[in-house]
Each structure stands twice: as C-alpha cells, then as structure tokens.
What we know:
The chain is an alpha+beta fold. It is 38% helix and 22% strand. It is a multi-pass membrane protein.
Amino acid sequence: MSTELVPGDVIIIPANGMIMPCDAALIHGTCIVNESMLTGESVPVTKTSLPSSGEDAAESYNMEEHKRHTLFCGTHIIQTRFYTGELVKAVVVRTGFSTEKGQLVRSILYPKPTDFKLYRDAYLFLLCLVGVAGIGFIYTIILSVMNQVPAKTIIIESLDIITITVPPALPAAMTAGIVYAQRRLKRVGIFCISPQRINMCGQLNLVCFDKTGTLTEDGLDLWGIQRAEDGRYSRSHCKPNENQTSEEIRVDSAFVAGMATCHSLTKIEGELSGDPLDLKMFSATGWILEEPTEEETALHNPIMPTVVRPPNYVVPEANQNNPLPFEIGIVRQFPFSSVLQRMSVVVRRLGEKHMNAYLKGAPEIVASLCKQHTVPQSFTETLETYTRQGFRVIALAHRQLESKLSWHKVQSLSRDLIETNMEFLGLIIMQNKIKQETAGVLRELRQANIRTLMVTGDNMLTAISVARDCGMVRAHERVIIADAVPPKDFQSASITWHYTENPSVEINLEEGVSDKRQTLQEQSYHFAMSGKAFAVITDHFPHLIQKLVLRATVFARMAPDQKTQLVEILQSIDYTVGMCGDGANDCGALKRAHSGISLSELEASVASPFTSSTSNISCVPNLIREGRAALITSFCVFKFMALYSIIQYLSVTLLYSVNTMPFLFLILTLCSTRYHFSHIEGISV
C-alpha cells in the first residue's frame, strides 16, 4: 500500500504483475507495462532497469530523462522478466499527490479556471441590480416613514424590494438550457463531466486537431521500402511481401534482418504486442518471434535472448548433414526515445562470431549517425517526395560490431557508442490514411468561419500533406515554413522562411507580403512550424509568436507540453479554443482548452471535459451546435429574468408610493411568475 511506502524504499515487483502504488525507478529486471491510465496509449511498453555501469550510470536520476526506466503510479504491470534467482526490484521515488497520477488527479480536482464572458457579465449585472435594489430599499423606508406605516410592515416591504430586484432563480433558470443540451449530447454519444463548458462550446472560433488517430486512421500500413546500396537507392521501391524471393529483399539481407529485429515487440499470453508501427513492420517480413521461457533461462548462465527467425529457412552454406537454422538473437535493446527520435538493438546471428547493431528512427536523425558515403546523395529529395505525399517514413541503418565484444560487455555499453558510424540501409514507407469523415467536417467548420489547426508530433512535410488532403490548406494556398535556430557560438537566434516547394530558397517575408502587385489568391498563405522552431521563437522572439499563430495552421513535432503552451497563447489573443485529440499525448491541451474533446474512452479521457464514443471528428460540429443552442437559451433566459425583475421592481415601487393594498402586489407577482415559467419552458424545448 502507498501508505506504507516512503521515497527510498526498495520494492519487489511480483512476476504476475501488479498496479503500481507509487512512482518507482526500476533497478533490476524488465517490466511490460500498460500505461493507458496516464497516456491513453493502449499499447504496452517495455521498461528496462537503470544503467548500472558506463557513462549513463554516472548521471543523476531524472524522471523526464529516465522515463523508460520509471514505473508510474496507477499503471498496470502486465508481466516481468528476470534472471534465475534474481528478483525484479524498484526504488520508490514519489508517493501520493507528488506522483504522475496524483498530479493528474489534482489537476482534475482543481482545474485552472476558464474565463467566460457571459458569466462575468452576469455577475456584473447582478451587482448593478444590487445597487438599484439598495436605492429602492432606502426609497421605500423613507416613503413608509412619511406615510406613518407600522415598523413591521416597513421591514417586510423594504426587504421585498431586494428579493424582487435581485432574482434568486437566475442561476437555476440559466442552467435549464445546459441540462437539455447535455441530454441531447448523451443521445449522440458525447459525454460531459463539466456541464458549464457546454455554453463555452457555443463561442468556439478555433479548433485544434491532433493528427494520428484523430484526422487520420490510428494504424499504419506498410506501403513499401526503398533500399540503399553503395551510396545510392535501388531503382524502384517494392513491398516486402510482393517479391520475397527476389534478389532485392532476400531473407538473409541486412535490410530484412533490421526490420525483423529492430523493434520492441513482446509476447503476452502468446499474442504479439507492441507499437502498431513495429507490428506492421515485423508482420511484413513473415518472420517468427520466440521468447525464452523461465525454464530455458534457468539452464543457462548467459542471458537468453529473444530470437527471431524466418519460417522453414536454413543457411544455404551449412553442412547438409547438420543444417544450421537461420536465427537471430536480440542481445540488447535500447528503447525508442521521443527525445532522441530513434531506437536500436544489438543482435547476433546463430553461427557468427561477431554481433551487429541495427538502428531505426526519424530519417534525418538516422542519416546524421551514418557514414556519409553510405547515405545516398538524393536522400533529402527522396524523403521529401514521400513525406509530401503524406507517407510516414522511417530509416534503417546497420553496423557490424567488433568480434571481441562479449555478451556481458555489450550489456554495459552506452547507446552513444553503439549508435555511431552506421551504414545506411534504406527507408521504410508507412501509409496513414485520412478518416472518411475528416474532410466533410473540416469543410463544415470552415463554412461556419471556425478556424482549424493541426497540432501533431509527426513529420512536418507529412503533416502539411495531410492538411492539404483533408482541406485544412486549400489547393491555391501556399505554406510558408518558419524555421528557427537557437543561439550558438556567439551567434544570436535567427528565423528563416521558405516555401514548402522550394526549401533551399529563403524568402523575405516583409517584401513578399507587402508586394502590391500580388493578387489576393497569391497572398493566401499559411505558416507551418516545428516544435523546435516554436520553442526558439517563444524564448527568443516572444513579440512574434502571437503574430505567427494568427496565420499558422500546421504545428509538427510538437511535444505534449508545447501543445498546452500553444493553447494558452491562442487564448491570450482572445480565441475561444477547442482541442480534439485521442487522449494519448493531448491530456494537458485537452484540460487547458475552453472545450477539450477526447476521442479515447480510456482512463486518460477523464482529463477532458467531453468524451466522444465515436472515434472521428464528426462529434465536433454536434458539440458546437448544442453549445450554441444552450448559449442562446441561457442568454434569452438572462435577458428575460433581468427585464422581469426591473419591470416588477418599478411596478412595486410605484404601488408602494401610492400606498396600495399588499394583495394587489401578490396578484401581480403570481401572474408574472406564471408567465415566466411558461416562457422558460418554451425556450428550452
């Protein structure tokens, strides 16, 4: 129990898994964890122990940098892996509300208040009515004293003026429209945990969308591969399952071996589990993955690796009497890091004395870690060709390690020593299809003069291509990429601008926009920027960021905290912002926006005021429509109640001035109340 734990305690993780009661750093063994409670990602992730030797071990523990070694509170540990006689251990780092889960719960319990003009004006108007009631109160007392009215009657009549002028039923009456709207939203599969936000949806004039899983399909399909040999690409691309026997992609090639080994897949109850991209890549090879059992590990002193092999394939050069199976063991894995944008593995093929390293990641990052003569000269042009068409591109690289490296020595090597002087193998091209409903919904929002933005963690050119395909950027409109460089070596930070069509040619933005000879069509443009440029501009050019976001449409390679920061900047320039995401990396932005809509029904969706049971963006127009209906109902009720109070206040004051019998006032009140409720009923229905 978390009540019995303090930071510094060492806990043992049971083999059959558990729900983590605290944040803990894994110091021994490996765990497979489902973190959907925090991230919204249903794909299990592998957590490895903290480095015990090498350069990485000298670093002090940091939760942001060592997320791959940290078990977070509330996450479900599915299974553990350990060596015989050794337990999986972790050190408690944080407990209670200091944990990641505790901070999420705290942000839900005490959200940052959102300012809404209708409610602010309603409070100001009520203060004005209190002032008017005060005047009537004093006037009634003076008039009654002059007419020699008994003291008891003076007190009752004076207090009546206050209750008449300041309508006590105003909050309940304004809630009527929200209640009806919430019922209608529930019928179309949109659930709300913050009903007051429904009125805010009626004022939305900008909606931010995540890309993967929101505008596009969640899964990826392997479209093809582009192999590289001797510093140039092969003549054409092909799919691995089209020509399995061809010379280009033979089973024992380094490219196929990289596809089969460079991943973080694992077997849970006999089923392959892991990142959808890794699953598609591995299944395209047709290979088989086998993991060692506890009994097999007990028979050997060395670490038993995960083995991959093609079905029914033996090494052609092997002795015919004793054929050697073609198997590759994954000796060490360096998990994917979103900061480094890459992952790598160290493998050994059965029968070989040396080991190999395979690297997979963002093409620009992989190319920078390869020997320059192995990277094709047309690398940039080929990459842009695919990304402009909306494909997601991943690069593969390979390196043969020294034969003197032993299994145990590899376990202590840092990834920087492995991921260098690689040989470029080629590109893996994945296709991410746009959802059927996306283009129609975005067209509907544009016709309603509601601005739309894309905020994604994907590649810049891929994001721009998807924005064009779904209609966020129209065919005649140009996209200007804003690229910023941080200060370095006595050089100040700088911003460069270029069109997507000519990335090598810089443009002078001031001359381009102010040229009077340009037609209106040529002046239609959108800005696009990466997360790196966004951070530099925010830090070093804060006076420009608000101007940029007024015309920016695509934000690529954005980290989760940058998404939240963008929402806050848009709110600071008087936008009423909606955010629609799948809950994976959008929790902060979903909470911060005026209206956050989660398309995920996992636990992370509790951070969002609205959750849709349909996994596409068709829920956004429905929400805005109901928001506007609730807003106009609240506004009409507010006006009616205000006029009703003022008219009744003036009438009663007039009756008091002529000292009319109290029963006349009673009749007037009953008639007004009856009309009032019938009017509210008519508006709500």
